[in-house]
């Protein structure tokens, strides 16, 4: 049961990494410093004040960069692999000691990295649709939604992890449908 709960927390944190790379790691660090979360062996560095400060600075920089027109699109090329790494680390940091080291890393890479990658790819697609249809004017709305999603998923992953997994699945289905609908609208709209 502990393994499944750890994976649910990992999925929620990984999905949050797909929205913003540093927000979930910052939440994990704050939770570690306050004693609300104890990271797995090898991830004790999350509980270091200097790491929390560095993650806070990185989070502020990442959030600000996503509000700069066109920089947000460029940042997505860097954020995609970074989110997969962060998702893997976040999942590994909450994994259960019940699994072997190999199984833990395999699950973290597949579940954590995969979840973060899928979420990130959908945010890239949503931003591309937004840039294509509004010239980037609506991108700050996308960025705000991603930030809210990252914060909520990160915090709720520790409180109600199973519910977060269900929310992630539902959100992914809705996002994919929205992106497909927008692309179809663009295809069927005659060029002026």
Automatic annotation (TrEMBL):
Keywords: Membrane, Transmembrane, Transmembrane helix. Residues 7-181 form the DUF4126 domain. The chain crosses the membrane at residues 12-33, 45-68, 102-121, 147-176. InterPro entries: DUF4126 (IPR025196). Pfam families: DUF4126. It comes from the Bacteria. This is DUF4126 domain-containing protein.
């Amino acid at each position: 049961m502990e393994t499944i709960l750890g994976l649910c927390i990992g999925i929620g944190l990984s999905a949050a990494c797909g929205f913003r790379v540093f927000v979930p790691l910052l939440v994990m660090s704050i939770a570690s410093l306050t004693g609300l979360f104890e990271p797995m062996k090898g991830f004790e560095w999350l509980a270091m004040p200097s790491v929390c400060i560095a993650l806070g600075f990185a989070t502020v920089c990442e959030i600000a960069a996503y509000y700069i027109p066109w920089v947000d699109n460029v940042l997505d090329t860097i954020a995609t692999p970074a989110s997969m790494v962060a998702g893997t680390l976040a999942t590994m940091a909450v994994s259960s000691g019940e699994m072997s080291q190999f199984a833990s890393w395999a699950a973290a890479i597949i579940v954590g990295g995969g979840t973060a990658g899928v979420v990130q790819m959908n945010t890239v697609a949503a931003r591309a649709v937004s840039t294509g249809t509004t010239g980037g004017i609506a991108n700050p709305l996308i960025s705000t939604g991603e930030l809210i999603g990252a914060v909520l998923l990160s915090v709720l992953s520790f409180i109600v992890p199973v519910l977060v997994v269900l929310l992630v699945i539902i959100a992914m289905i809705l996002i994919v449908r929205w992106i497909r609908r927008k692309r179809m609208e663009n295809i069927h709209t005659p060029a002026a």
